[in-house]
Amino acid sequence: MRDLLTVLPLAVVMVAGPQIISAVFLATNPRWVSCSLAYVAGAALSILAVCTIAYLAASFVRDLVSVSAPGSSRRWFYVAIFLLLLYAMVYVFLHRGRPDPPAWMGKLQEANVKFAFGLGFLLLGFFPSDLATSLTVGLKLATDTRPWWHMLPFIGLTLLLLALPALCVLALGERGRHLLPRVRDWMNNNSWIISEAVIVLFIVLTVQNL
To answer: Per-residue pLDDT tens for 186-201?
Structure first.
């Protein structure tokens, strides 16, 4: 259970930045229900795929290496996790607090369902910091010989965070729509700090295992 809870904070890293800001824009779309659902569905598919591929690959290598050198693969996997987290930390820092969202995000207020699904799939699966984070989760669970399903709470929390803007509109109606721009601006300016704190915490935990 401890290892299961350890990876949960990384869900914050997954959504901080253009991921949650895109979700805010989609929540102001006239087709906000279908577009938000499509965005979350695309994200779910890509995160699950990347985490699973990392988990299966790491499990295969771990079992292969352990035959000739028991225990040696674990240390190298933790080195790989450390390097992935270090990359994510540097990337988040270099792309921190941009004054305004990219121009293409404004088009999300008129996006269709197909575009929203593709955006969720690409942003959450292949955005550099997200790719590094998903690989980290898969490697971490495989290294600690945890079952595959232990990644599901991490994925579920990530999707819940992505769905928060739409849930806000669902719960508060027009009031929620007026609140979202302020939330978007705050996230754009400050989410990188939260991400860095989570990554640093996970790096410390990883170093303790080296």
So the answer is: 777 777 788 888 888 8
Specify the higher pLDDT residue, 188 or 110: 110
Give the pTM.
0.87
> Is the Cβ–Cβ distance between 111 and 34 less than 8 Å?
no
The Cβ-side half-sphere exposure at 146, using a 13 Å CA radius, reads 21
Which amino acid belongs to residue 35?
C
Place of tokens 């729509």: 177
**What distance in Å separates the CA atoms of residue 5 and residue 1, rounded to the nearest whole number?**
6
End-to-end Cα, the chain, rounded Å: 21
Question: Rounded mean pLDDT of 196-210?
Answer: 81
Backbone angles phi, psi at 9, to 5 degrees: -60, -20
Evaluate if residue 70 carries a pLDDT over 60: no
Query: Do the beta carbons of residue 27 and residue 36 sit within 8 Å?
Result: yes
In the predicted model, is pLDDT for residue 184 greater than 80? no
In angstroms, rounded to a whole number, what is the distance separating the alpha carbons of residues 65 and 101?
Answer: 46
Indicate the burial class of 68 (C-beta count within 10 angstroms; 0-12, 13-18, 19 or more): exposed
Classify residue 203 by burial, with Cβ atoms within 10 Å: 0-12, 13-18, 19+.
middle
Determine the residue type at 1. M
- Per-residue CA distances from 153 to 11, 18, 61, 204 (Å): 9, 22, 25, 22
